[in-house]
């Protein structure tokens, strides 16, 4: 009975992990594809069907050719070989003998000319259709053959034996490839869009917003949690109610305020308006409420002032709340797009942040998805790392705050 129960438990847990793994794969796959594509060559990004890992077509040097030739797989006498593409657009005609239409011959059209000329080409019935007759020269002999189809093939030569060559469709041929990576995409996108300046601006703005938000939220949260002053609760409810105001309602008055102050097109407009957070103040207040008052009273008796109590007692005890607020603020400040788009001019690249640079890069490198995704990786990876490092604090913060009013 016990073994049967354990088997059921193992089966159920296995199914749960399997379902979670499948969902996790679908969630993380776009990020993996973005990261691997950022290391691809431009032509590899347009390959169909698309492939996850970056690959590079191998080339070889051959006498008589100034540039390296790409290698493709080709069949010679039933054996797969690596052949060099020496000519990629040879016009080939598919001919049949009108007297024996069951046998098809593939011959270059350069060695054939229409019988009767191009304006009055002789026609013949082959395979139930009227097709033109060509005079084809092959092996020193001229024959009258009917042209039933035509295509374009490539000429492939064995690099080790130039006497071995075949004709086959280049588009349907499989190239000889190896796994590779092109980290130069990151340097190219930085040089193309001045991404290094945008990255430094984004780091500066994010750090200042995070530090400013932590400072105002900690001071405001402590005041609302521990200081008694007239109208404290009403002021807190009013301040908390600002969270319900949609951002689109605030855009116009905020922009007019920036114009009045003279901060349009300046980095200060990306920092100062966002260092005051009602959510951050609420989060810190709720956490500070959970700290026993007896600890604070004992510190006051020992001669500590309010600032010392905040710095030496409250802050060390509120690490989960601070980490949670830091992570959320970092993600918001790093990924902010609409407000920088409104307040920073497109032509002022010196004050661009990453989101604005990516918006411009989308148009400038529209034919190079590998560069666009390299820029996206530069913008996405830092907040992903911060989120992964800070997520362990979320549950601890949620379970230890917000439970008292």
Terminal residue distance = 49 Å
The number of distinct helices, counting runs of at least 4 residues, comes to 15
Helix/strand order, N-terminal first: HHEEEEEEEEEEEHHHHHHHHHHHHH
Structural class call reads alpha+beta
- The average pLDDT is 85
What shape does the CA trace take?
A: elongated
Largest sheet: 9 strands, antiparallel
As a percent range, the share of helical residues equals 40-55%
Secondary structure: number of strands: 11
What percentage of the residues does DSSP assign to strands (E)?
Answer: 15-25%
Q: What's the gyration radius in Å?
A: 35 Å
Parts with pLDDT < 50 across at least 5 consecutive residues: 401-405
Structural overview:
This protein is of the alpha+beta class and 405 residues long. The chain has 15 helices and eleven strands. Strands 2, 3, 4, 5, 6, 7, 8, 9 and 10 form a nine-stranded antiparallel beta sheet that branches. A hairpin with a 2-residue loop joins strand 9 and strand 10. The longest helix is centred in the N-terminal third of the chain and has 36 residues. The radius of gyration is 35 Å and the shape is elongated. The relative contact order is 0.11.
